[in-house]
Amino acid sequence: MEISRSQLQDKNLKTQEITINMGPQHPSTHGVYRCVLTLDGENVTNLENVMGYLHRGMEKLAEDRTYTQFIPYTDRLDYLAAALNNIGYVETVEKLLDIEIPERVEYIRVIVSELQRIASHMVYIGSYALDINGFTAWMYTFRDRERILDLFEMISGSRMTLNYPRIGGVSHDLTEEFIAGLRELLKDLPSCFDEYDGLITGNEIFQARSKGVGVLDAETAINYGISGPNLRASGYKFDLRKAEPYSIYDRFEFDIPIGENGDSFDRFVVRMEEMRQSLRIIEQALNDLPEGPIQAKVPKVIKPKAGEVYHQIEGAKGWLGYYLVSDGSTKPYRLHIHGPSFVNLGVYPEIAKGGNIQDAVVILASIDIVLGEVDR
Questions:
Q1: Is 213 left (phi over 0), alpha (psi -120 to 50) or beta?
Q2: ω into residue 24 within 30 of 0, thus cis?
Q3: Which phi and psi angles does 336 have, rounded to 5°?
């Protein structure tokens, strides 16, 4: 029996799909995350998220800790942005208690929050470049992040999981050494950001690997509940600090950077610009920093009335929210954490399908997850 040319081509081109694991010990999974890839050659036809390797039962632990005792646990959620986790939690408790925070505390929290946002984005930028085999940029971003961690150590005694905020205030006032060091840092960081642009943003290899890769349109992003820089990179201009101002963010002038194409390149560029906007906020807060107490009058034994409250802030990776239920005792009856890394990771299979396995690494890096916040 004769075989036609088209039949022969179909026979030769037919391939068998294979299934492989990426993670949970793969260096590009940014922690103990695992995904199951179905491949046709090098093309990704399906991707499945597999999470839970770092699950520590944070929300359940809260039920057996007092409101104050749980503050250090929040450091370990997004451990690259501990201060933001702390501030989001203590503001939720303060909302439940209906207490007024001193003006100086509000300004200090804004300064620390934006420093933490920059430090988190620096890890993102360096690790993103490293995933595409750009080691030099990793060294530059971690060099500059060390200076921010030095500042955190001055006021809290810790560098990474700093546990600085308290219910009603902060643990220590800003020192003269801190303020002098911060002013020096503010002068130096713009040139540091320009270095990142020269090393990464304008690099033709980085652009070739990230432009048009992992495109996420605004409608899909909203449907998946995506928030933070990933949502804004898709062209949707929404930032909780502007749209639903909390703390004193309505007093500061800053822009909301957005992307045009929603691809892996835009997700990088948006975070680069966000660091510059954070600098603007810090400069304004530092110049307007008032004198005053660093702690509100809070009962020694915190025992909120029975009720429930939800509060969210613009975290480094998106909307970080806490839902607290009080039964009138000294411990939360229920705590639920809305972790942006967990929510944002949900869209990964959607935007990775159709690309190749190399693109899958780039897309995951561009989403910016931290497993402490994914698994909790």
A1: beta
A2: yes
A3: -125, 135
Q: Which of 365, 134, 130, 375 is nearest to 271 (CA)?
A: 365
Nearest to 30 by CA among 158, 112, 120: 120
245: cis peptide before it, omega within 30°? no
Q: Per-residue pLDDT for 5 more than 60? A: no
Task: Find the Cα–Cα–Cα–Cα dihedral 252, 281, 276, 142, rounded to 10°.
Answer: -160
Q: How confident is the model at residue 7 (pLDDT cuts 50, 70, 90)?
A: low
Residue 14, pLDDT score: 64
3-class DSSP assignment, residue 94: helix
287 by Cβ neighbours in 10 Å (0-12 / 13-18 / 19+) ranks as exposed
- Strand order through the sheet with 18-22: 18-22, 34-40, 43-50
Q: Domains (ranges, CATH) in the chain?
A: 5-375 (1.10.645.10)
CB 31 within 8 Å of CB 38: no
Tens of pLDDT, residues 80-115: 999 999 999 999 999 999 999 999 999 999 999 999
Distances (CA, A) of 284 to 53, 181, 251, 291, 376: 42, 16, 9, 15, 34
**3-state SS class at 82:** helix
Residue corresponding to tokens 């989001």: 88
Q: How many Å is the Cα radius of gyration of the chain?
A: 22
Identify the CA nearest to 104 among candidates 297, 286, 285, 289: 289
Predicted confidence band at 8 (pLDDT cuts at 50, 70, 90)? very low
Residue listed under structure tokens 């509000």 = 106
Burial (0-12, 13-18, 19+ Cβ within 10 Å), 325: middle
Helices (H), 76-172: 82-97, 103-131, 135-156
